[in-house]
Amino acid sequence: MAKDNKQKAVLIKNKKAAFEYHLEVKFIAGIILKGTEVKSIRAGHVNISDAYCILDNGKVIIKNMHISEFKNAGYSQHIPLNDRVLLLSKHEIKKIMDKLKDKGYTLIPIELFFSESGFAKIQIALAKGKKTFDKREDLKSKDIQRELERFE
Q: Residue 3: which pLDDT band, with cuts at 50, 70 and 90?
């Protein structure tokens, strides 16, 4: 039997995103990272629940994404809350720019993973904030679904 040398993709999900926002258009972007940041992500020491994205001079930048320091890095450590540039095509950046001009839209990260080729990727979405009654309806439908699954 031959062993598969494919690495397991690390998935870090932003669970609050689907509850707090209506997710409309999703994009997959690469991230510019340092070596110690990649090692920390592979270990699962990253938090994207408070992160958000902004546009700055035609670049998409993710802010407030916390990547913990890698403990075996030695003297060259990275800054945990550093701003990181996302890699998107010009066409996708233009789409995002046009949508963000509308009132109520924001750009948030949904999940962080490694592609099959080993590059760190992040899925971001254009989202519009939910109202309180929308959140209540989501919770109600989730409870009903759980009850139905329990009795089946």
A: very low
